[in-house]
Design brief:
Arc Repressor Mutant, subunit A, transcription, 2 domains, AraC-bd, 12 helices, single chain, elongated, DNA-binding transcription factor activity, 291 residues, alpha+beta
Length: 291
Amino acid sequence: MTIKRRIDTLIGDYFFTKDIPIYINRVAESYELHEHMHDFLELNYVSEGTGSHVINGISSPVKKGDLFLLPMGISHVYRPSPASDADPLIVYNCIFDANSLLEVLSTYPGSEVIKPLLTDQQYRYSYDRFQEFHRLFQQVYEEYHRERAGWITAVYTYVIQILLLLHRSDTESEVLLPPSSSTWEDVLHELHTHYHQSISVAEIAAKMKISVRQLHRLFVKHTGSSMSHYVQMLRIQAACDLLRTTDQQISAICEQVGYHDVSYFHHLFKRKTGSAPKAYRRFIRSIDHTQ
């Protein structure tokens, strides 16, 4: 029996009670909040402590300095470590309406580099090696809650600075922090363990604490192809093993290796192996019987 995860939906209008469609808080994470998605964009910064961050059902450890940008439609929740009373997991949350921020950005020359962060459907991760994000979150949090003269301009400016720094850290990370061979081994372990699940490039990159560009270059370097092609290969190999060693129906094997569209599975399997699944089963078993 499969237990369905509870996923709540949070609405921005509930939080946007001030004069701008931005809401900023700083909280000690607990187990009270359920996994949720939202109709706004969200910047999270781990300020203190350790714990885990569950994104689309996949849990990854987090620590001080971890930053995430989460788009609409991504489910997530933070969970503190068991020793959270002594070392609480403190997270800054900055949520905002993407369309409103795009309007503000339209008045900034050269802001095109930031716009993909507001429209991309993949989430982003960065690690704050030099405490630059931390300082910006401290400042925007103070401006938002003190509401001094000009605070709205200040809040928009700090949010844009955070996004610009995230863009720079993403584009410069390969030069600053080349992935080690152990990173590649960890990537392979993750894919070989979870190939049958729905896993995006961004999810794997975040779990490995590298950028999406770094992960793409790792795959080109080691396999000559993309991660999606590599996952396809793992799934087809698993399907071949199941066709050879079990009597399961084709539709069941399709589901077991991670596909939910049988016709697409048939098409992909034939393209990769040269035979339809049923024909492959007959052929491979005939070879086994002659040996």
